[in-house]
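Methods — Computational structure assignment.
A single polypeptide chain was analysed. Its primary sequence is given first, followed by the predicted tertiary structure written as structure tokens.
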Amino acid sequence: MRRLTVPALCLGLVVAVPASAQTTIESLGLTVSGSAALLTDYTFRGISQTDTKPALQAGIDIEHETGLYVAGFGSNVDFGDANLELDAMFGYRFSLAGIKFDLGGIYYAYPGANEGGLNYNFFEVAAKAAYEIGPATLRAAFHWSPEFQFESGNGYYVEGGVDLKLPFAFVLAGRLGYQWIDKNDRFGLRDFANWSIVLSRELFGFTFAIGYYDTNIRKSDCPKGIGGSNVCEARAIASVSKTF
């Protein structure tokens, strides 16, 4: 698989880890939180980044009391000659009229990956919003890259979803997104939709999750992974994560 990857989005674990595990440095007005996760597959926007194999991920988030933040994320990957993804994020979080906003940027880096002179690294601007109504949290996101991966021009991604609190502390999360790419031939994939549904629960300080992920990409259009695996097809993914 050479020209196909849709990388992680801002600490993009399979499940949303709880925000309660964090450290506050009052003298500096900072809140520091970290996360670690083990997944049976690392998929984002419906496409496997690890050739359908397991992934180990870690992230850190440092937020000032003003709402400004910086964050980092790392994961193993397996496509082309890339085997590591390191992301850097920054932005501003605030609330307005009961809506929580997150405006910022994400730089995706793949150290040492340069197969055929392709530029794996790229930058995205991201805008996210969340609104809580009783047991449900509505979510929306928009991402734009002025030069998407492999220099494929403008890239746009929109996503909507809901997190629903269920009895016995379970959480059911659904997402529906769509990716537009300016130069599809250079990226190696046409514009596509993706969706997922994930059931999670916190237990003994860990968050356990099982989810279903799929895209509308035809099997014949999806580049094959190593050994002929189809990295775009429907799959179930299990994960365990912890915040600290």
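Note: Residues 190 and 213 are 18 Å apart (CA to CA).
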